[in-house]
Structure prediction request, 117 residues.
Amino acid sequence: MPVTTKAGSAVMKGVHKTVWTNMPNGNTGDPQSAPTFNDKSVHVTGTFGAGGSITIEGSNDGVNWLALHDPTNAAITLTAAGMREILENPLWIRPNVTAGDGTTSLTITLIQRGARV
Prediction:
């Protein structure tokens, strides 16, 4: 499965932003490791194309990936632009574009906040 690279930056003290840009159908994102940032939210924008879908996944071993959940315990799978808070705090997080067509091009922004100091 092709992998989309990520770009990361510090937003302010204790806050980090990771962005995967122009993800097409069939790609996963280069996994982000940020277990020290216990509060996380994900924002998905872009063109979903016909039947487009993206799932935010987590793993503690980098091999076995599972859908992450929002605070209502719903799997974070989007078929339209949206933002969700992430309930779990796994070692690794990645986006996975699971459906779409040739026009699918999504940008995923992961905001991670650590403990207040």
